[in-house]
C-alpha cells in the first residue's frame, strides 16, 4: 500500500522534493481508526513532512484506502532503517557507485568483487587542507605518489567525520590511476568475509585474494579489536604484503595504543610506519570547506550563512556539510530565500541546544557583553545602547531558553509579551543585514553555550 502511495506521490511532486523528503520513509503502522504512522530517517524530514507535505500525503492515501485517514510522522529508529540508507547519509551521499577500474573491461575479474567501491568525490583535489589535517594529507599524498616507498604502513587516526575515509579513497584513486591493484575495504567487511570463508572452510581463498593486491586500504581498523581469528589472519596478510613491498594504509578512530584487545604484535606492526592524526578543523578550515561545498549547491549561499554555519558546527566535517545541505534544501524546497534567519532556524534543529540555559544567564551575559548593568536591562531607560542590549536579551531568551514570552517580559522588568515579541523580531531582522550585531549575538551565545 505504502509503495503504491509513494508511486502516486512521486508523480505529484518535483523529483528533488520526492527524493529528499519521501524516499527514506516507511509506513510503520496503521491503527484501526485510520491513523497512518509514517517514519522518516531524519528529524528534519519528519518536520518537513508534517509541515509541508502532510495534506498531499493524506489526500493520496485517502484515494488508495477509500476513507479518511490521519497521519502521524515519527523518526525512524536505526533498526527500522534499511542498512544503506543511514540517516547521516540521507542528504549527502549519492547512490553507491560500482568501482571503476582504469583499464575498463580489461580489469581482472577479482577486482570487481574485492573490497568496497571508491566514492568518486573523495579525491585529493576536493580535500581542503588546514592546520588540523596537514600532516595526514601530506603523508597520504606521499603514499599515493610513491606507494610502499614513503611510509608503510601509513596509519591515520582521528574522530568521526574528519576525513579519514576521504583520504583513503583519494590514495586509492591515485594508485588505481597508476594501474596498481588497489583494494579499499572496511575492517567490518574484511572481518565478515573472513568469517564467511572460515565457515565454508575456504580461508585459503581469503589469503590469496588479499595477498595479491598492490595497495591495501583498510578503513576503521579499530573494529578488528577483540576478533582473534581476524587478527590472526590479518597479521599474516599484513606480513606477506609488507614483505613483498606492497603498500598498506589503515585508518582508525584512535591511535594503535588506544585500541584495546588488539594483539601486541599487530599493534607494533601498525606503529612500524607513520602514525598521524587528524584533528577537528579550525574556523578558517571550516569556512574553506563550506565555501568549496557551497560552489556545488544549486543555489547561491551568502557568505554570512557560511560563516554562521562554520561558527556553530565545530566538531565534525560531515555535520558541517550536512548542515549546509539541509539549509540549502530548506531554502530551495520551501521556496524561501537562503538567509541568516533561516539558517539560524535550521541550525537550531540540528544542533542540540543546551537545555540548562536560563533567563538569568541570558540577562547577565547580555548585560556583561554590552557593558551595561542588569538593573539597566530591567529598568526603564530608553538610552540607545541599553534598549539594544535589552532587545538582544529578548532575542536570545526566546531563542535559547524554553521560557514563555510572558516570563521573559517579567524577568526583564515587567514588560508585556508583545514587547518581547517585537524585540525578538527586530533583532532577528537586524542581524540579517548588520554584520557587527550578528557577531555580537554569536559571541554572547557562544559564552552561554560554554557556560552551560
Ligand atoms: P571519517 O572517515 O574520518 O569519519 P570522512 O572521510 O567520511 O570522515 O569525511 C566526512 C565528510 O567530510 C566527507 O563528505 C568528506 O568528503 C568531508 N571531508 C572531510 N575532510 C575534508 C576536507 N579536509 N576537505 C573537504 N571535505 C572533507
Ligand atoms: Mg570513515
Mind summarizing the main beta sheet? 5 strands, parallel
In what order do the strands lie side by side in the largest sheet? Answer: 5-6-7-4-8
Principal-axes geometry comes out as globular
State the secondary-structure class: alpha/beta
Alpha-carbon Rg, integer: 27 Å
Number of strands: 8
Strand content: 5-15%
> Number of helical segments?
21
Ligands bound to this protein structure? adenosine-5'-diphosphate, magnesium ion
Give a structural overview.
This is Chromosomal replication initiator protein DnaA. By secondary structure, the protein is an alpha/beta fold. The chain has 21 helices and 8 strands. The protein has helices at residues 2-12, 15-22, 43-65, 89-92, 109-113, 134-145, 164-177, 187-199, 203-211, 228-243, 264-270, 283-294, 303-312, 317-333, 340-350, 359-370, 374-378, 384-400, 405-411, 417-433, 435-451; strands at 26-30, 35-40, 70-75, 154-158, 182-186, 215-219, 247-252, 274-278. Strand 6, helix 10 (228-243) and strand 7 form a beta-alpha-beta unit. Adenosine-5'-diphosphate (ADP) binds next to helix 7 and helix 14.
